[in-house]
Amino acid sequence: MGSVAINNFWNFTTITTACRNFGDPSCSPRSLPSILCSGFKTNVRAFASQKSVKKSRKKGKTEKTDTAIPDKYVVGDDVSPNYVEDSKNTSPLDTSEAETSVLMIPSRGSVLQACVITSGLIGLVGVVIREISHVASAGGLPIVDCSVEIPLTFQLWHLELITGLVILVSSCRYLLLKIWPDFSESSEAANSQVLSSLEPLDYIVVSLLPGISEELLFRGALLPLFGINWQSVVAVASIFGILHLGSGRKYSFAVWATFVGIAYGYATISSSTVLVPMAAHAVNNLVGGIIWRYTSNSSK
């Protein structure tokens, strides 16, 4: 469009220069050829069309800018599909509290994968310790044979001990959830992060695998190495409790895990088998998960 205006301006300059050079008195603005007038008209039309195009372009840019989606409503590309935001307790009027209260919940596949891998590694460490102690003890080294001290045996009366442990631990947990706010918050944070995305049948997996692997390591391997006595029961239970810190769980949850570890240690010494704490631990996990699911669904 700019070349049209330049060409018409050049034609006008050529005609006026020629009139001045020849000194023709008839070359006045009124007697200029009709082509000159048409040139002016073309020039005006060109500039008018150019202005209208610019206006339309500016108008289009303005409309695009006004209709753009605000950044706060755009989902970022860096959000992992393995996580889901839980913002049911957030308020749109308080953005600072909303940002801090958003809980990233792992997907169902991520939870199950982490449970299988972690439980497998913990159980593997327990098996290795028991086997090494067995080989070392058989070779004459002054090391306790864990597989002999705490074997994988089962007797019928062990069912009574398992039932008593489940009633004791589940009742104490339910009571503490009512009277200890800090413990209740820690339990809610841990359960929400692990159990929210699971199906009902998945609770069996996340209850059974940790119960078996953790007891195999702590009560089946570490406890006999430390010694079959109350001092070792408390020491191993304290390690068990400390390792339960993190993922929203505070020191109150570590205290609770230590108490549970002492109960499982007592059951191990009383029964002389690791199967009793394994079964009690797995059932207690399942009962705790079912209670949390029932109470969380009732509160919605």
Automatic annotation (TrEMBL):
<feature type="transmembrane region" description="Helical">
    <location>
        <begin position="222"/>
        <end position="245"/>
    </location>
</feature>
<keyword id="KW-0472">Membrane</keyword>
<protein>
    <recommendedName>
        <fullName>CAAX prenyl protease 2/Lysostaphin resistance protein A-like domain-containing protein</fullName>
    </recommendedName>
</protein>
<dbReference type="InterPro" id="IPR003675">
    <property type="entry name" value="Rce1/LyrA-like_dom"/>
</dbReference>
<dbReference type="GO" id="GO:0080120">
    <property type="term" value="P:CAAX-box protein maturation"/>
</dbReference>
<feature type="transmembrane region" description="Helical">
    <location>
        <begin position="251"/>
        <end position="267"/>
    </location>
</feature>
<keyword id="KW-1133">Transmembrane helix</keyword>
<dbReference type="Pfam" id="PF02517">
    <property type="entry name" value="Rce1-like"/>
</dbReference>
<feature type="domain" description="CAAX prenyl protease 2/Lysostaphin resistance protein A-like">
    <location>
        <begin position="200"/>
        <end position="287"/>
    </location>
</feature>
<dbReference type="GO" id="GO:0004175">
    <property type="term" value="F:endopeptidase activity"/>
</dbReference>
<keyword id="KW-0812">Transmembrane</keyword>
